[in-house]
Records
---
Amino acid sequence: MSDDMTRRQLIERGAILSLPALLAACGGGGISGAQRTTTGAAADRTLRSPLVISNWPLYIDIDEDTKKRPTIQQFQQKYDVAVRYIEDVNDNDEFFAKIQPSLSAGQSVDRDLIVLTDWMAGRLVRLGWLEPIDREATPNASNLVDALASPGWDPDRTYSLPWQSGMTGIAYNPDLTGGKVDTIEQLLTDPALKGKVTLLTEMPDTVGLVMLSNGDDPSSVEAGAFSKAIDTMQKAVDAGQIRQFTGNDYSGMLAKGDVAAAVAWSGDVVQLQADNPNLEFTLPTTGGMIWTDNMLIPKGGHVYTASTFMNFVYDPAIAAQIEAYVNYICPVKGAREVLLAQDPDIAGNELIFPSDETLAQVHIYDAEAADNQDYKEQFQALIGA
């Protein structure tokens, strides 16, 4: 494995993990609603210091020598705004549990900007707990790639801008599979792969791919189609086709050859290929999934300052700087062109800068379905959780 760990190599996005040492080093801790109340910050068009950001661990560029974050330093210098950058989003549900008491009481959570995945962001939109982005302060939002411009849960991007994205598809070792694995049907039924396959514990990723394989639309989930996907996977489980359902620990098993093929995240495979270029990642012929972690302004956050930061990181040069370290899918047009001059290998990596043709093959999972308790229970029963 590469020494540069991705966020998914540190945590499973669906698991509740504790990182006390990391959080202590980053100034993390509990979220208090007593420090600021919601007072219509959108009307205040002056910058406020400090800007307080909550993000996932290892999700922004770091200078390996100084251990500081160049993007944060540059923003502070340009705008004379101090930044408290806190790496305390370890799991969507866990973070929601922290902010729910304050936001439900109409209080601030002492954060100006938080980064959460599509389905959880959709929940906050439905609850009315987000501030609209200041569009006058974010002209660089026009650099958002077209494929991410209009998710169903926030079709006009009123409340959100993508931070990073990743594709979900099939990773496989051709030395162990004997050839290409490019369909979910093959993954779930090929006798040559029996007991050598893993699927993800993240419902939108796994169910989404199976729905596509069944000819159904994961961006608008219907109960019958969801049940059909569960039944399809249950047959594979009962037949012994599936070794197990995993978080990102599939990456270690794939690297060691313990599994031959896996439903996988593109960002992990970028790192795995650094040590084993023979590993392959492909989108199934019926289509892949794409997830996005989004910048959001919780109620009580300072809209103008948070929007100014959003605009800053949507400058292609800054986005390229972040991307060179993070290696997930960059949402900013123009960043690839910057990296072509600085790091052609990253700029040319289809898993980091997918072509329009590739992006046309991926789907955003229905945010309300991802948050549907009945669907969650069906899926948890399937995976034995």
---
Amino acid sequence: MKKHQMILATLSLMAAASVSASEDAMEHNPIPHLDHVIVVMMENHAASEILGATDVNTPFINAYAKTVGQAANYWGVGHPSLTNYLEIVGGSNFGLTNDNWPNWVNGGCVDNNPAGSGCGGAYTAIDGPGTDFAFPATVDACVSPWFDQLGPLSQCATAGAGSAIVANNWGIVSYPAITYTPKTIAHQLADRGETWKSYQESLPTTGPRVDGVNYADGTYSSASPVAAWQINSSNVSVSKLYAVKHNPFVYFKDVQLGTKADLSLNQVVGFEGADGLYADLARGTVPTFSFVAPNQCHDMHGVGGYTAQCGNDAHALQMGDAALKTLVTAVKASPIWKEGKTALVIVWDENDYGNYANQVVALVDTNYSDVPVVSKRQYNHYSLTKTLEAALGLPCLNHACDSGTQLMSDLFAAH
């Protein structure tokens, strides 16, 4: 497990230079209706690895964070990646507890890894109500050290700290199993006649709507084991830069089947091309809700335990930092940033799965407020779901409706 340290002096200066919103301010600054929401998902790093202590690897993020809203007490709900992605877009893990691939309704599971076993545990597409997976909290007691001077995150007490990692846990709030509504924000928008897209960098050219691709290197599709899994002289496979586990909408049967034109795999596109992210931004034609997943080198995840084509962890941080600079620059150059109300959210799914508190970075940038609010309120992915739904005029879904799930009003309000 990597070392996690926090430079409190740096964070204190950041806090002093920012605005810490009060409860009164939140009540008098409700969340405005948003015309566009863009959520960028980053991967597998705790807050202490991104802000302050590691700015040598993340200079853009550290500079950018001082100019936008920060949820400085923000938590992942559990592990692993897929569950957190589903929780952000749908307020539930929908009963899925790992990163297994979907069993495509019109093509079955596709596992082109010669040594793979992904199809052995492939998920049946979500269809109809069901029971989700309970997430017991494994952080016993922790007040965010970002502003409360408790020291490094490692001082937060965790159940079984130093022992084997507890699967699916490491959140700060316990969530009982519920009967979930099988919908996401995309479903809600489609029901209302509004638009959404899942922008997936390095999406294979054949796309998931054709061959049920699970992952590929962006050049070859995974329709062919030879193309997708070329082995070099060192017996290292080609990077799998696109990962279906980072594309939560395709785990739903109605999206796979595309029985509704505006709720189908046609809304899953890449970053490049005529209908890709950068073209949409340049034209100002991005949908109401954009879910943006950089590839596994650019989201800081890395491929092959950080040792394959993405390099080591420092390289993963540096590549993610550069990728975010490109994304933020493109968003702010888009016509949507100059008219109406738009929010750009950059959030990490979870820490690196170590035995310590699962606190991650969440940044909120809007085109209608230039006050860099720093919020000390405790939020998690369900808070983000609830807030995005409120901003888009949608009802809450699943755990976003829980009484303890707080709106991120201080970060989305017009200041």
